[in-house]
């Protein structure tokens, strides 16, 4: 995301327009998902509103894998080697410091704000574990810790593709199969015995970002990827509707960011954006808008749940109209002040660029 996934935590790479576009699209998708999912969790499956919200979420789950891929394209670039000392002295603290600060902020609001429990133990736990969306910073920290291992992997493209081919099935496909009746128990037991945890789903996205950034894909491959992306969205929506209907409550099984149905959408979007970036460029107006959203995506990500929480205190949710209308409206209402707050925080001398 913006500064966290590029110029704050990784060596600065000259602005690449298609990566900026992906950042901007991904941060909008994140805000849309969070604007819609609160009501989705409150609705029983099967109704029109629940179905609309399901399809909105299904179409946008690509956002987090795309952020990981953008980070990998920037951070693992061979020409931008990062010394291990710099990794621990600069890159990782630039993720953990905002995690600590914003965890404290969200814990204060959640525990001591309106409707909070005022329980010091709950406050301490929330401040340590972080708000629900801050997991991304910890996941990215884990990837940065693995960078000294991943760099030798990406030096050989064949080894890197082998890593991805190994990581995605073990982290994406096989865990999903554990939910199958009867056979799922066997698969789960086998995976538990293997304890094959070296190759993880997020590291596959990290490496895929670099591989796709450097790949020359034919029009035929791009067409197949586009078809796969559409199929992935359909599979996410139908799968979520079915498992939710079966359980009688909203079920996020197919919403997981490492599921194959979500992964194929993220891969397709990244590859198509890369192909677009090689042939086209944005107009000056669009370039400024994309640079603004992409450049402040880290701050928007950190701040937007706080803005959404403030709206909820006044009863402003997606329930005022049909989701196809209320979700975009709430997204804009959250996105604009989040961007403005990120821009203001960034101006704080010394710490602004760390916090937003």
From TrEMBL:
GO annotation (BP), single: enterobacterial common antigen biosynthetic process
Membrane topology qualifier: Multi-pass membrane protein
Keyword Membrane: yes
Keyword Ion transport assigned: no
Source organism, top-level taxon: Bacteria
Family statement: Belongs to the acyltransferase 3 family.
Descriptive protein name: Acyltransferase
Keywords: Acyltransferase, Cell membrane, Membrane, Transferase, Transmembrane, Transmembrane helix
GO molecular function: O-acetyltransferase activity
UniProt GO cellular component terms: plasma membrane
Domain Acyltransferase span(s) in chain numbering: 17-342
Localization per Swiss-Prot or TrEMBL: Cell membrane
Main location: membrane
Segments traversing the membrane: 21-41, 53-75, 95-112, 132-150, 159-176, 196-212, 221-245, 257-277, 289-311, 323-345
Classification via PANTHER family: O-ACETYLTRANSFERASE WECH (PTHR40074)
InterPro entries, sorted: Acyl_transf_3_dom (IPR002656)
């Amino acid at each position: 995301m913006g500064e966290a996934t590029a110029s704050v935590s990784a060596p600065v790479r000259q602005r690449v327009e298609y990566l900026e576009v992906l950042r901007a699209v991904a941060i909008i998708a994140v805000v849309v998902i969070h604007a819609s999912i609160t009501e989705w969790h409150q609705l029983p499956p099967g109704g029109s509103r629940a179905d609309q919200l399901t399809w909105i979420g299904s179409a946008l789950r690509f956002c987090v894998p795309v952020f990981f891929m953008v980070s990998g394209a920037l951070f693992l670039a061979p020409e931008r080697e990062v010394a291990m000392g710099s990794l621990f002295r600069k890159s990782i603290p630039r993720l953990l410091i905002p995690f600590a600060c914003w965890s404290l902020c969200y814990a204060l609001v959640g525990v001591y704000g309106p409707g909070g429990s005022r329980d010091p133990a709950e406050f301490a736990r929330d401040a340590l574990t972080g708000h629900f969306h801050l997991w991304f910073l910890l996941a990215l920290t884990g990837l940065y810790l693995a960078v000294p291992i991943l760099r030798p992997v990406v030096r050989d493209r064949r080894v890197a593709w082998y890593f991805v081919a190994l990581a995605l099935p073990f982290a994406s496909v096989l865990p999903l199969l554990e939910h199958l009746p009867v056979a799922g128990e066997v698969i789960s037991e086998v995976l538990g015995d293997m304890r094959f945890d070296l190759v993880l789903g997020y590291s596959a996205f990290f490496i895929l970002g670099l591989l796709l950034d450097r790949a020359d894909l034919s029009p035929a491959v791009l067409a197949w990827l586009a078809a796969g992306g559409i199929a992935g969205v359909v599979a996410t929506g139908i799968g979520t509707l079915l498992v939710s209907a079966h359980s009688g409550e909203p079920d996020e099984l197919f919403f997981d960011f490492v599921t194959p149905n979500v992964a194929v959408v993220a891969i397709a979007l990244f590859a198509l954006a890369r192909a677009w970036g090689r042939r086209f460029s944005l107009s000056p107006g669009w370039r400024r808008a994309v640079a603004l959203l992409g450049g402040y995506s880290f701050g928007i990500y950190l701040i937007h749940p706080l803005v959404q929480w403030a709206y909820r205190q006044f009863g402003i949710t997606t329930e005022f109209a049909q989701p196809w209308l209320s979700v975009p409206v709430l997204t804009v209402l959250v996105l604009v002040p989040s961007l403005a707050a990120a821009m203001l925080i960034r101006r704080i001398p010394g710490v602004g660029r760390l916090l937003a």
